[in-house]
Each structure stands twice: as C-alpha cells, then as structure tokens.
Design brief:
This protein is α+β, with helices and mostly antiparallel strands and 279 residues long. 44% of the residues lie in helices and 22% in strands. Among the domains are: 68 residues, 434 Repressor (Amino-terminal Domain) (Orthogonal Bundle), CATH 1.10.260.40; 104 residues, no CATH class. The longest helix has 52 residues.
C-alpha cells in the first residue's frame, strides 16, 4: 500500500529519533502544524504556500529530498492559485490607418516649418542671452554698493535657520523603552513607554522561508504581509492606541522594533504572538 506524504515524513522523523517537540525546536514550526502534516490534514494549515514550505523544511530536516517529495505527492498537497490577466488584442482598421497617416502628414509639415525658421530662432535666442548678461552685470554693480546691508540681512537669515534646525533636531523619540513582562501559552507580553505618535512597528524576517506577519492596533489591522528573507513588514500605530498585537505564521526569526527600539525575545521561545501594552 502506497504511503501518504505525511506517513513518509513521520517514518523518517522516527528513524532520526526525533520527537514532535524536537522537530518543533529545530524547524520553529508549531507542533499543531507538524501533527496536521503527518496526519495529511492540510485543512488545518494556514494556506497552500505554508503547507508546501513546511513540508519541504521538515523533509530536509529528517534527511529526505524535500523538492522531490513535493513533486511525487503533488496530488495530495493544496496548490497555490495563480491569477492571470486576460490579454487584450487591438485591431487597426482602415479608418485608424487613415487617421494615423493624416497625423504623420501634419507633423511632417510642422517639422519642415521649424527647419525653415531655425536660423531665425537661434539669432533671437542669442540676442536674448546678450540682454540677460547686460542686465546681470547692472544688477551686480548695484548689489556691490549695498554690500553692508546685504551682509547683515544674510547673517540674520543664517541665525534664524540655525535656530530652526536646532529646534527640529531636539524632537523627542517615538519610544523611550520596551520592557518584556512575561510569557503565557503561545504569546509574549511587553510594556512600551511611548512619547509620540504615529509609532512605527517593523518586522524584519531573517529566516530562510517567507514569514506571514500581521500587525494590529487595538484590534484594527495596520499591516499584513508575507516578507521573504531580509524583507520587512511595517505598520504605523495611530495616536490613542493602547495595545499592539503581532501574529506570525511560525515563530519569527529576525528583528522586531517598536519606534526604533528592538524587542528582546526570550531564548528558546516558540511563541507566534506578541502583545505590547502602551503607557
């Protein structure tokens, strides 16, 4: 009797001597997804993309050829849907061709006219350039007579500009601190002291696989994406928000920052959800 892809993966795991907990620790894939794959229950997976990615990662971990395994059991695995855009064919009728010929004739006439008047246009431009140069010389002579007044005005403008720059660069940061509180089940809890809004929350994926990441502010989704390796998902948290929530397809590997402050993830954590209370 032919084995299912889940049975093959389970047998290979057991031959390696790995428990489901061991496999979760190595691959960072949640245990409930590992069980669903071994049971061939793909309805419990977050989507076709993650199903194929997780199967390949598990297969490679237990010593199998993930790509070959996916190809051999393609009929068992959900396939991603690719949307196509129907092409549009344009037909040029005799009426259109006639209109194009008329336009070409019109532009040809305009081009010939410009060629005839080109020397005159150049001469006119040369005269305008001479008049402009004379005007600049006269203006420069007048400016030299008023040098003290001009210098004083320039100095005052520079001082005002320096004052503006100093005021701008002393703006308060978005966040003064983010403190880890505790872990509960599959979630981590933090407290953030925020000095201004809007507040940027960024998730940089440093794993080998794409990561689903969603950022919410008081239950309203502000960012949702699947960044590939070294790509970032960024959410802008509006003023008045009291709780930030982040959800991930699997335990995130990478850097998470809130207002420029990096979150400290406890060592060995397999959490896939983060709550941040704003003070």
């Amino acid at each position: 009797m032919t084995q299912t892809i889940g049975e093959i993966l389970k047998s290979a795991r057991q031959l390696k001597g790995y428990t489901l907990d061991d496999l979760q620790q190595i691959t960072k894939i949640q245990k409930r997804y590992l069980i669903a794959i071994e049971d061939n229950d793909f309805d419990l997976m977050p989507g076709a993309f993650y199903t194929r990615a997780f199967i390949k990662q598990i297969a490679d971990t237990v010593g199998l050829d993930g790509a070959a395994l996916l190809e051999e059991h393609a009929s068992e695995i959900p396939q991603a849907v690719v949307k196509t855009t129907p092409s549009t064919t344009y037909t040029t009728t005799s009426s259109n061709r006639s209109r194009l010929n008329k336009n070409k004739s019109k532009w040809s006439s305009v081009s010939n006219t410009l060629k005839n008047y080109f020397p005159t246009i150049l001469l006119g431009m040369f005269i305008v350039a001479i008049i402009f140069a004379i005007g600049q010389a006269v203006f420069s002579n007048r400016a030299q007579r008023n040098t003290p007044v001009t210098t004083q005005a320039t100095t005052q403008t520079a001082v005002a500009a320096e004052t503006t720059v100093a005021t701008t660069t002393t703006a308060a940061p978005e966040v003064t601190s983010v403190t880890y509180s505790y872990a509960n089940g599959n979630a981590l809890y933090y407290i953030a002291n925020v000095s201004k809004f809007p507040l940027d929350v960024k998730v940089l994926n440093e794993a080998r696989n794409a990561l689903w990441a969603q950022i919410s502010a008081d239950g309203k989704v502000v960012a949702d994406g699947v960044p590939a390796t070294n790509q970032t998902v960024t959410g802008s948290i509006p003023e008045g928000t009291t709780t930030i929530r982040m959800d991930f397809g699997y335990t995130p590997l990478g850097t998470i920052t809130v207002g420029g402050v990096e979150l400290t993830i406890p060592e060995g954590s397999t959490a896939t959800r983060i709550y941040i209370t704003i003070q």
